[in-house]
Amino acid sequence: MSPEVPVIILIISIPTFFLLRWILKRFIKEKKTRNWTSILGTVIIAPVLYLILVIAFFSYLFYEPQYDFDREKWFADKHSRFEMRDDIVDSDILKGKSKTELIEFIGIPEFGDSTNIWTYDLGMSGAGFGWQFNSLELTFKNDLVDEVKKIEIVD
User: Fold this and answer.
1) pTM (two decimals)
2) What DSSP letter does each residue of the chain carry, written as one string?
3) pLDDT the model gives residue 129
């Protein structure tokens, strides 16, 4: 456990204690009992609040929206194509298409080579405290798409 965790929990504990004491004022009339109940509640609630805040922070940090493939969106915004990559890979909508059909459907690839591998740039997305470069790699067999793979490079 890093040294700042207890400090953060202590910071969370102070307002939690006073809030609990204020709420319990209506239910527990004796001051000593109310304070001890507030302390016990704070000892239980503060670490739970800390965990909730940590989970919320990392959920926000690593959140990436995912949408179904939309041709209009694909051509309109090149830099957010990564939001459709999972649908493209999972639905197999590109498998079995010829190179000409593929160019009509999703455009000319950014990188293509003689070994029958085409790569489409899908844009950058956030990856925690860095960046993630996304691309789609298509492998051809007998001039038809055989394999569709998403490539993610985290910087």
Assistant:
1) 0.66
2) --THHHHHHHHHHHHHHHHHHHHHTTT---HHHHHHHHHHHHHHHHHHHHHHHHHHHHHHHH--------HHHHHH-GGGGGGGHHHHHHHTSSTT-BHHHHHHHH---SEE-TTSEEEEEEEEEEETTEEEEEEEEEEEETTEEEEEEEEEEE-
3) 73
CA atoms within 13 A on the CB side of 92: 5
Residue 63 is predicted with a pLDDT of 79
Q: Is 115 left (phi over 0), alpha (psi -120 to 50) or beta?
A: alpha
Predicted confidence (pLDDT) per residue in 10-68, tens digit? 999 999 999 999 999 999 999 999 999 999 999 999 999 999 999 999 888 777 788 99
